[in-house]
Specification:
This protein is of the alpha+beta class. Helix content is 37%, strand content 12%. The protein has a four-stranded mixed β-sheet. The relative contact order is 0.22.
Length: 139
């Protein structure tokens, strides 16, 4: 981030070796026309700039930090991120009180099986090298 860039409202730490995760971050970045979100691959060199984020924990559940320095986890990250790009309504039902416990349970199952699920949905189980290329055409 240079001096002309504003501090992001949300910094998301994600698994860049997960094809589905990378595809989600690419889609989010594409919709982030005001550059309010920063995505950081936990397997990138850039991640070392965030010693307060535990890599093992971030590899287990999606982590983010908002512009106030508050830690946000799991589907709360997803909902806040998509809300910042005016698409929070897509994930809002997952945060409703009666749905939230089941959604969080399902999310944790997804997170633990993300490579298998990525293969089912994209045809790639885990990206070669340290990370996936993030672009809007990625499968």
């Amino acid at each position: 981030m240079n001096a002309h860039e504003a501090k992001p409202k949300l910094t998301i730490f994600y698994d860049g070796t997960c094809p589905l995760c990378s595809k989600e971050m690419a889609a989010l970045t594409k919709h982030d026309t005001k550059t309010t979100i920063k995505t950081v691959d936990i397997y990138s060199d850039e991640f070392s700039q965030y010693p307060n984020i535990d890599a093992n924990a971030a590899n287990t559940i999606l982590h983010a930090v908002n512009d106030k320095g508050e830690l946000i986890l799991g589907l709360d990250v997803t909902h806040q991120a998509w809300s910042l790009v005016s698409k929070g309504w897509l994930y809002a039902p997952l945060r409703w009180p009666l749905v939230r416990p089941l959604a969080d349970w399902c999310y944790l199952r997804f997170a633990n099986n993300r490579y298998k699920i990525s293969y089912w949905l994209t045809g790639v189980s885990r990206c070669d090298g340290n990370s996936c290329k993030i672009n809007s055409d990625a499968k």
